[in-house]
Write a structure and sequence with these properties.
The structure holds 2 protein chains of 2 kinds. Chain A is 79% helix and 0% strand. In chain A, helix 2 packs parallel to helix 5, helix 4 packs parallel to helix 8 and helix 9 runs antiparallel to helix 10. Chain A contains 10 helices and no strands. The longest helix of chain A has 37 residues. Chain B has 8 helices and 10 strands. In chain B, strand 2 and strand 3 form a beta hairpin. The longest helix of chain B has 16 residues. The chains are: A mainly alpha, B alpha/beta. The interface between A and B is medium-sized, with 18 and 23 residues.
Chain lengths: 229, 256
Amino acid sequence: MEGDDALSLLLRADPTLLAIVRLSLGVTLSATLVATLLGVPLGAFIALLRFRGRALVIVALNALMGLPPVVVGLAVFLALSRSGPLGTLGLLFTPQAMVLAQALLILPIITALTRQTIEDLSAEYELELAAMRVSATGRVITLIYEGRFALATIVLAGFGRAAAEVGAVMIVGGNIDGFTRVMTTTIALETSKGNLALAIGLGLVLIGLVLAVNGLAWGVRIWAERHAG
Amino acid sequence: MQDRVERPGSGSISAAGDAPGVAPRPLIRLDGVGYRAGRNRILSGVTLEICEGRPTALLGPNGSGKTTLLKLLMGLVTPSEGHLAADALAAMSREAMAFVLQRPVMLRRSAGANVAYALQAAGHAPTLAAIDRILAQVSLGHLRERPARKLSAGEQQRLAIARALARTPRVLLLDEPTASLDPSATKAVEEIVAAASRDGVKVVIATHDLGQARRLAGDVVLLVGGSVAERGAAATFFAEPQTPIARRFLAGELVL
């Protein structure tokens, strides 16, 4: 039974499986960190600044949330290929390229949802912060802090999206055994080869990861309601 | 104690309760101030002085411009016309003013952290001693670690006043601070306001509660339709209103 074999792989902590899981987590956590560091401040500033073309930027950001991963993969592939603008960096078919692709994939999600969250909070807090004479920078920091629980959920959503995507990392990582092979690309490859045990094992890990992320998001919200109101 | 009623545009409000023979010092002057929001004229031709002394009550029906006038005093909106000087005294500036909104927004943190935030925003060190002292002023010392949004409406209003007091204001602007509170919470807020006033803080309070204005105010400004309809010492205003519109307002007959 393939299912029994998959469980066996998990229970005996198969080194190949663990290496793939480790790389997957490393790539996705890095991508989420990069996208968060860029997306949260960017979203906050778009929420609070008024500039020409702002509506267009918001519409574009919202549209980019549905960006197909293969398109992101293709764009990053073209940018990193030898003749591309970033070809000299030599990053194609490396984990760094996969981080870049995943970060670009979830950047619009984190930016757009942060923008919406901060804009809603700003409407609520604007007069109060103005009355307290809080500086413009102070207001941005305050609103990000006040929205911290909603933002944590947004970041976790971004992490889930990056962890589950396959197209982009397949294109820019090349699915090289022991180097750029992550859970999703391995599942796709092993399924096509008929090696269902490893595919199912990794599928179970992936589902567990997604469940854990959602459980964490739920826990954050419950904790916030109890402790911060 | 000066105790006279003046018609719009005729000079300063005299603060009842001041020392006899001592003219109350003006803190804020408004000269022909008007404010428009789009095509709507919210305030027009407001000329008055807010002087040191007992609290000034801003009275008037809904939509008469009380909140807008408070925002103008705080500098949160700019007059469309006229002139407003908040630096009538050399040491007076908007930094020495604090504003409590009708529906204050609690930061998503503890009561103590809310006060700490206000202290920091005002440039003061948010020490535990300072936080405890300010919370004690509004009788919330025992709730320092409680999430602010978990407090009752009355406690939240007192916390909002605590945040305002953290600015060590010379002038405290209150926008209907007891509008949604029960009598006991109202009494608690009034005691805090009275204590602040005794400590030398000039309080300007917008209120619909005539009883509250009688209890707290030294002088009254009646706004109707964005203009000052009557102003003067509270005792005189309530005993002998000088204008028909004030008499109708006090009789509860003013319908706009």
